[in-house]
Amino acid sequence: MKIGILYSGGKDSNYAAIIAKRYGHEITCLITIESENKESYMFQTPSITQTKKQAEAMGIPIVTVKTKGVKEEELVDLNKAIKTAIKKYEIEGVATGAIESVYQASRIQKICEKRKIWCFNPLWQKNQEELLEEIIKEKIEAIIVGVSAEGLNKDWLGRKIDKKMIEEIKILNKKSGINHAFEGGEAETLVLQSPLFKKKLEVKDKKILGEGNNWRMEAELE
Amino acid sequence: MNKEKILLISTCKEKISELEFVKPISQIIKEEGKDSDVESYKEVNALVANKYKIIIICGTAIADFDYNNHLINFKWIKNYSGKVLGICSGMQIITKVYGEEVSTEGLPKIGMKKIIIKTPILGLEGSKEVYELHKGMCKTPKEFTSYTSGEEAEIIKHKEKETYGVIFHPEVRNKEIIKKFLELGEK
After folding, report:
1. Contact A102 B112 (CB under 8 A)
2. What is the pLDDT of residue B187?
3. Which of these, A44, A57, A50, A41, lies nearest to A13 by C-alpha position?
4. Total structural domains in chain B?
5. Which of B12, B39, B58, B88 is catalytic?
6. 0.80 exceeded by the pTM?
7. Regarding predicted confidence, which is higher, A182 or A46?
């Protein structure tokens, strides 16, 4: 089946793309929403413009739609993006990296239902410790580009997800309940390399913005 | 040997959907220290089912109705003496096997919903928030009792057998239902 990946550039949507391909689906496009609202409930925002470079690295076209990121209204823009992907890239379904968020998953399901296409969430309800370990095993190289939780600070920005980090996250999870896979928005990631990338990306330039426990990195990849 | 294992019947046409609708249930079973096997709706029959004492018929994607073309593979449910739990499309299959209607005319049910449980069942009582993802509105077959208020059947149980159906997805926010159902197998 021809599908589009709802793509944030982070570890989960990249892993969902790998799984979709492994199950025989043809990824005809990526779909990214660029939100002006940095506090969006629906969409990742740090370094979101870099998805174009990631799409290029994969050799897959990308549909990008900008949104003001107003709660619920931003779904109109997601609907628009999916509609474009159906028309231009003939997608019959989308795959997402949703794991636990009923808020995000149900809204995407509603749009897919309305547009009469399939919705696949291959990471849904996945054990989150296992997920992080699989990310490493699958050779997905991801760095932290956003933090927003007690126990995380700007020193985490730019760090690669590796075994050492997983151990630190396990401790933080016990101490302050941080979601292992960061799905509660505790941290956001940016993938530099994955088995679907034809070339590895590197951070050419970066801007660090924020305060307190709320920091983000706007990276420029090459 | 299989009598110790739980059979999960996949109703997913697309194999990738099993990661979303079957794997979370096998994960709960594993956490409870038990094992499970998975069989497709295209392959299941009385011979397969009778090898197991506990069966869960799992849900599938909201766009997926292919299992309706294979309902004949589920005729064994009426004569089966073990314990069965049908989740979403699984409950719709049970409803149809017992000759009752499943309407797909109404609006899709997607997201969290509060249900009111009239009589305690599978560890649920009072009001509960559940995650729904379906288009099929089931009527309660005459051999079954509906445990929730409202016209649509949301939780049903056979009046004489341990055959259950839930229209929502307990693996998302109500895992205790699956755990409770597994405990029934120990009795």
Report:
1. yes
2. 56
3. A44
4. 1
5. B88
6. yes
7. A46
Structure tokens at B75: 């005729």
Return d(Cα A6, Cα A81) in angstroms, integer: 10
A102, A112, A117 member nearest B111 (Cβ) = A102
Would you place residue B2 in the very low, low, confident or very high pLDDT band (cuts 50, 70, 90)? Answer: low
Q: Which of A91, A94, A118, A128 to mutate to test the interface with B (most CBs of B within 10 A)?
A: A118
Decide: B20 and B163 in contact? Cβ < 8 Å.
no
Instruction: Provide, as residue numbers in chain B, all residues whose Cβ is less than 8 Å from the Cβ of A106.
Output: 110-112, 131, 133
d(C-alpha A36, C-alpha B26), whole Å: 40
Q: Is there a contact between B20 and A120 if contact means CB atoms under 8 Å apart? A: yes
All domains of chain A, ordered by start, with CATH?
2-120 (3.40.50.620), 143-221 (3.90.1490.10)
Q: Which two tokens stand for residue B179?
A: 């755990």
Annotation says B58 is catalytic? no
Which residue type, as a one-letter code, is found at position B66? Answer: D
What's the rounded Cα separation, in Å, for the pair A67 and A43? Answer: 10
**With an 8 Å Cβ cutoff, is B71 touching chain A?**
no
| pLDDT band for position B1 (cuts 50, 70, 90) | very low
**Mean of the per-residue pLDDT values of chain B:** 95
**Contact flag B19-A127 (C-beta cutoff 8 Å):** no
Within 8 A by CB and 6+ apart from A51, the residues are A7, A8, A9, A30, A32, A62, A64
| CATH code of the domain covering residue B71 | 3.40.50.880
Interface probe, candidates A15, A91, A102, chain B, greatest B C-beta count within 10 A: A102
DSSP class of residue A175? H
Q: Does residue B171 have an active-site annotation?
A: yes
pLDDT score at A148? 86
The count of CB pairs under 8 A between chains A and B is 67
Edge-first strand listing for the sheet containing A2-6: A62-67, A26-35, A2-6, A93-95, A118-120
Print the domain residue range for B70.
Answer: 2-184
| pLDDT tens string A1-48 | 999 999 999 999 999 999 999 999 999 999 999 998 888 878 988 999
The arithmetic mean of pLDDT across residues A39-67, rounded, is 94
Q: What is the arithmetic mean of pLDDT over A165-179?
A: 84
Q: What are the pLDDT digits (tens) for B117-174?
A: 999 999 999 999 999 999 989 999 999 999 999 888 999 999 999 999 999 999 999 9
